[in-house]
Structures are given as structure tokens and as C-alpha cells.
Amino acid sequence: MIKSEICSLLGIKYPIFQGGMAWIADAKLSSAVSEAGGLGIIASGNAPAEYIRGEIRKARSLTDKPIGLNIMLMSPYADEIAQLACEEKVEAVTTGAGNPSKYMESWKRANIKVIPVVPSVAMAKLMTKLGASALIAEGGESGGHIGELTTMVLVPQIKDATTLPVIAAGGIADARAMAASFMLGACAVQMGTRFLSAKECSIHPNYKEKILKATDLCTMVTGKRLGHPVRSLRTPFARNYLKQEYSQMSDEDLESLGNGALRLAVQNGDNENGCFIAGQSAALVKKEQTAREIVEEVAREAEIILKRADEWVK
Ligand code: TUI
């Protein structure tokens, strides 16, 4: 079985995380992934703390396996949710879209494993110094808010910059990418887009259909003008947003154009006004499966690929 240091660190069977996707990664999806032996992660996104508390408790009622909480650091509720993680004693906190330094001590005191997303070597060194338990190296192939570098170049650089376990993310939706990640020095992977196809993922059917039909050039990046690039499916919303970035529209109006668009995609399946966040690996997601089928298939096939690796060298 494919195993690594992350499994003993977190008490999970397979070295597979489910990404903390805002509005999407709820109690149902995350508990299904954890039950299957991966690490299910509840996403806080921009949601209020009490809503997240409810999701954590619901997940606890559905699984007794470890669960993670992703804290989106640009959220207006980030302080409260950081505190909530301690109160609810989640096993692991992952962070995104910012620097979690000011929370690290309190999480460590609460015995929570802290696993930040690090988009650069400098951030990896800082998080290592401040006592993170592991690091997620997320390349720009991923969906949502992205950094500058690709997974292929980021993972080995982060690996060289830290002694901590490294989790690869961005562009990973199947066993081949998992095996490749291990070759780059990672000891686990995080998949977001692949789990959008999970039966337990409660996104609108229009969203799921778009993922299953996605092809190679189906995603694009918007938001560069405001300094927060976001990868999503190439839809009328994304095309229009990009057009407005090159128009005279004020920064404030541009920002409000994006507000609520992800929620419209997730809950209403709004093909015109929704922002359908997805990574470049959407084109590799072919069918709907249970979270268990996804976790077990990716783990089993990655093991086969890695075992065969010696056949390539004569
Ligand atoms: O966070 C993500 N993905 C996300 S967050 C999100 S919600 C959002 N929507 C619009 C604009 C911004 C956010 C949707 N998808 N992935 C992890 C990630 N973290 N990617 C990049 C980063 C990151 C960037 C800068 C982590 C740390 C960082 O540090 C900068 C600093 O403060 O030094």
C-alpha cells in the first residue's frame, strides 16, 4: 500500500488530501474522504464562524477519523475561525491565500497539526521556522487563488527548502500525477478538482457536468489586475471579467463584479453569472465516483506506477 510519513503524522490510511474548496468542501464531502482513509478538509472560505462550527460537528457525527479545516486567510472571519479550530480540536489546519504566522502558536498549543500552503521558498522557510507540521506546495495549475509557479518546479524547490513533509497540489487528479509528485519529493498529494466529481460533492449538477466535459484549454486566469489571480472555467462570467480588467472599470467595481459569483455557480449552477472554479486537471476528470472510489483508485494505481518505475531504466 502507498504510505508515507504523513500517514503516521495525521493518523490517515492514504497520503491523499481533499482540497479545502470554498462553498464546496462541506461536512458531507470531507467526512466521506476521511472515512475512505484520506484527509477530508472542511473549507471555511468566506463563511461565518458559526456556520463552520456546524459543519465541523456534522462531520464529526459522520466519521470518527481525523478531519482538517482550511482557513482562507483573506476571509473577514479568519480570526474567529482560527480560534474555532482550537475550540473544536480539528486534527489539522491548512491555510491559503496568506500568511498564518500570527495564529501558529495558538494552534500548536491546541495540538493541531498546522499545514500551510506555501507559494514560495521564502514562505516555506518561514513556516518551517515557526513550527508548521508539513507544507503544501500548490502550483498554478490548481483552481482558485494561485501563485506564480507550477507544481513541477515548486515541489522540488520547497522540498529542498524544508525538512518537513511536503504535500503536492495543483494539477493532480489521477495516479500518474500522484506518482510524479512522489518523484518530485512529495510524500502526499492534495486534490481539489478531482473531488468535484465525487458523488458526495453537493455542487449544482451544471457545475459537475462542466467538470466532466472539460477539455485541455477549458480554464483561464482572471483577477491579475487586483493582485489575486484566480483560475476558473472559461465561462461567460470569466470572459467578461477578464474583458473588464482591461477596461476603465474602477478597482471597486471590478471587485464587486466577482463577489458572490462562486456561490452562484455552486448553489444555482448559473451558467451566465457563476464563477466555476476548477484546476487545469478538470480535463482529466472523466466520471462521477464516490469519494472512496476516488481515494482507493488513485492510491492503488499510484502504487503500481511507482513499483514499475525500475523497468524504465536498463
Ligand atoms: O487559497 C487557495 N485557493 C483559493 S482561496 C480562494 S477564495 C479567494 N477568492 C478570491 C481572491 C482570493 C481568494 C479561492 N481559491 N489556495 C492556496 C494558496 N495560497 N494559493 C496561493 C496561496 C498563497 C498566496 C500568498 C499563500 C500564501 C501567500 O502568502 C503571501 C503573504 O502574505 O506573504
Kindly describe this structure:
The protein is of the alpha/beta class and 314 residues long. 43% of the residues lie in helices and 14% in strands. The protein contains 14 helices and eleven strands. A four-stranded parallel sheet has the order 1-9-8-6. β2 (40-43), α3 (49-62) and β3 (67-72) form a beta-alpha-beta unit. The radius of gyration is 18 Å and the shape is globular. The two termini are 26 Å apart. Ligand TUI is lined by residues 22, 72, 74, 96-99, 117, 119, 123, 138, 144-147, 228, 230.
Taken in chain order, the helices and strands follow as HEHEHEHEHEHEEHEHEHHEEHHHH
Q: Uncertain spans, ≥5 residues at pLDDT below 50?
A: none
The class by helix and strand makeup works out as alpha/beta
Helix content: 40-55%
- Placed side by side, the strands forming the largest sheet appear as 1-9-8-6
Any ligands, ions or cofactors bound here, and which? ligand TUI
End-to-end Cα distance: 26 Å
- The pLDDT mean sits at 97
How would you characterize the largest beta sheet? 4 strands, parallel
Shape: globular
- Strand proportion: 5-15%
Tally of DSSP helical segments? 14
Structural Rg? 18 Å
| DSSP E strands, number | 11
How do you describe this structure in short?
The protein is α/β, with parallel strands linked by helices and 314 residues long. It contains 14 helices and eleven strands.
Keywords:
314 residues; alpha/beta; 4-stranded parallel β-sheet; 11 strands; globular; binds ligand TUI
